[in-house]
Request: fold
Amino acid sequence: MPSASTGASTTVGATSSVTSSTAAADSRLTPGGPGYRRMSFALFLAGVATFALLYSTQALLPLVSTDFGVSASEASWTVSAATGALALFVLPMSALSERFGRRTLMTASLAVAVTVGLLVPFAPSIGALVALRAVQGAALAGLPASATAYLAEEVRPKALITAIGLFVAGNSVGGMSGRVITGWVAQEWGWRVAVAAIGIIAVACAIAFRMLLPAPKHFTPGSLRPRVLARTVRDHLANPLLRRLYAIGALFMMVFGGVYTVIGYRLTEAPFSLPQGIIGSIFLVYLVGTVSASTAGRLVARLGRRGSLYLAGGTTTAGLLLSLVDSLPLVLLGLVLITAGFFAGHAVASSSVSHTAKQGRAQASALYQSAYYIGSSAGSTLGAVAFHAGGWAGTVALGLFAVLGVVTITLIGSHAARTQPHREPALAH
Reply:
């Protein structure tokens, strides 16, 4: 029988443990608290650099086609190679982040990516350009999964959706600014100078990111052993909720990748016949994505996660249908709705992954990012093929098919939540 002193010691130890745990939880970042703004702005800049570099050639595909004398589907590989390489390397990179730290890996990834970005303008052939873009995409693979894992560890759970939404908002700003800047610069000096300008901007973002991002306080190094990694990945893939979230991310990105890869070709043709600078400015609609991603937390609070996904899918569908009309204002409105729906859906799905995974968060996020960028690569390639075969209507049909997949998967999740509520914690409200 334990003595009174032993019982007291146990009680004190338990109390001390609880206090320690509470202190650890309280030390995580929260909106308005110290370090939160620096962290948010640093990851915002990382998102800007990532998307600006990753999609730096997308608005320039008609010019790349002309310069190298290749078709739209061949030129689209300058986008698909980058996103495809990112999809392949994001899981290995996440394993490195578990061992060496999120901030360390993100810094190294940005350093390599911006260096390659300064070499891209000198590509002598379409093959060399595609190869450089693949290397760039592989380097950028260290950013997305590490960033969301960093946030899951360093930010209080109630603020996680908002924090990830801000990171996604940085993605949208990067995607927008990259395309707008390249459009106008390319109109005056060609696509090579345009991608060089993006490279220089990314260098500035990378330096500011490293200076601003707070050192992690809640990171615990993990193992690099392949067997441990394989077991973690297997556990995540065995989770039906995570599998559905991965599929939703891929399908949303298939729509987005297809639409924005092909839209430049459509707008250069009759009845629009727009110059490159104006086409680049079309990507200002990314600002809508910035707003929809950063407000995803409030949307979920009002509609629930599945309700938010339904709304995102419906908004994207309306945008696709509107874009079929040969009227520039309606095409622009369609792009606005597609962009708003995509970024809202992506923010909800990616934050749900971080919320669901209780361990191996970097691998869980990496699997989401891998699926997401596989969707982007497939959307870019299939969207161009569909455009070649059936014009813009073919690309829209591909997008509608992908949105139907999102809605179907969300319905399956709704059914699972009703029949097995204890197994659907992340999307149960």
